[in-house]
Amino acid sequence: MFHIIIAIIFSVFISVQSVPTPTFQQCKKTDVTCLNGNINTIFQKSIKGDQDLGIKSVDPMHHKEIDGQLSVIEYQLYNSTVEGFSKCEVVNTKLDLEKRELNFRVLCPVLVMYGVYNISGTLIVMPIEGHGDYKIVCKGYDMQVETDIMIQQDNNGMKHISIKYFKADGELTEGMTTDLQNLFGGKQPQLAKDVLKFVNENWGPVAKVLQGPVFGANYGKIVKNINKVLKHVPLNQIIEE
Ligand SMILES: *[C@@H]1O[C@H](CO)[C@@H](O)[C@H](O)[C@H]1NC(C)=O
Ligand SMILES: *[C@@H]1O[C@H](CO)[C@@H](O)[C@H](O)[C@H]1NC(C)=O
């Protein structure tokens, strides 16, 4: 009996100890490397999720619908999966507590997205229309995320930051391959081929035109998770106040 109790106490102790809590350093305000490390840790945790904190992983990420209403082109993406955010890295973090701003870049080696698309309009110079399966592989995405933050106190009087507004932009640096099934309803195979060739050859500008709504959807989910993580990390664990 005694041994069982010891074993239980011991195993409780072990399991509490072995919960992988991220290690933060209390950074000096001017120590940008230290601060970037903390924000990167928070970002990674936000992507991978944490069962103990009830935070679901967003790699893979799922979107029921993304609605892209742009001026000359409109598209919807249905039942989409995004894979690869857990391989991304945060760089160039800037946290300004006075201005209530947190800005950083996210470098992603490979992001893959697939599902069902619906598109109609003009893509730069090409007419495009279709509805079917799609798959996009993006290499070397350099994303800039700018946020406005709030500082609030929890019940224990500890200050926490949270993101109340974000905007995300970015450039592809290495390439993108796009597959769109059933362009023009399969009725204009030569035009479909030409459009796909154009999309794959002009990946940089094509991504720039189309990425906005996808960025909004992706970072909407990521920022939600970042805020959940930040609830468990007092500000003074991240930076000296
Ligand atoms: C949605 O996508 C998943 C994964 O690609 C697939 O297994 C599922 O059948 C799709 N659901 C619908 C309703 O198309
Ligand atoms: C695709 O878009 C067209 C025109 O924008 C719309 O009429 C159609 O209902 C859409 N189809 C689906 C399946 O969303």
TrEMBL record:
Keywords: Signal. The keyword Amino-acid biosynthesis does not apply. InterPro entries: Haemolymph_juvenile_hormone-bd (IPR010562), To_sf (IPR038606). Residues 1-18 form the signal peptide. Pfam families: JHBP. The keyword Signal applies. GO terms for cellular component: extracellular space. This is Protein takeout-like.
